[in-house]
Amino acid sequence: MYRISINNCLLLLIFLVTIVLANVKAQFPAEQLDEPLMDYKRLGKYCYIHNFELWNNRQKELTIWVKLSKLMKLNLNDHPEIQKEMEQYRLQYECLKILERMPIAIGPGR
To answer: Would you list the domain boundaries of the chain?
Structure first.
């Protein structure tokens, strides 16, 4: 029996979003879709989460470091690697929220 993992579900949902966006782009003028499509492409680049538990723990750790740096009044702009990681986690979280709102149909469609 084939087990469906969270990673496989996420990859399938990303694939389905890509197909839907391609169909939407074909139906509407490009100037209306340029900005949202760029947002989805940006999200798609960072959406893959290999191990959710590890990702969640790392996100908590990063949050603690950010709070500690604010408490110590350190400037995070001086550390581009931290900014890059914060942006990646923000995009991954945003992607998870988009996937969470997507309707999922199970069974034969009509």
So the answer is: 6-101
